[in-house]
Amino acid sequence: MPIRILTPPDRPLDVVRRMVWRKRKADSVYRADDLIPEESDVVLQAIKRLPPKESYDRVFRLRRAFQDYPYLSPIIQEIEAELKERNDLDSLVVKRR
Length: 97
Known about the structure:
The protein is mainly α. It has a domain of 59 residues. Helix content is 62%, strand content 0%. The protein has four helices and no strands. The longest helix is centred in the N-terminal third of the chain and has 18 residues. The protein is flat.
C-alpha cells in the first residue's frame, strides 16, 4: 500500500476549521428569534429596542427568506395530488355485466 501524504485540505485540523467556519456561517444566517410573530405589542417593542445593526440584519434575513424559492412546496403538492388520485381510484366501484 502506498504511503499517502496529507495534503493541506486533508489535515485533520483543517477539517475541524472548515466545520467550525460552516457552523459560524450558519449561525450568522439563521436566527430562531426571527420566527417569533410580530403580532403582540411586547414583540414590537422588543424589535424597536434592537440595536440598528441587529435590526437591519433581521430585516435582511427576513427579506432573503421571503425571496427564497419554495423548494419543498411543489413536491408536497405533487404528492398530495397523487394520494388524492390513489384514494379516488381505490374507492372506485367496478360493476360487472
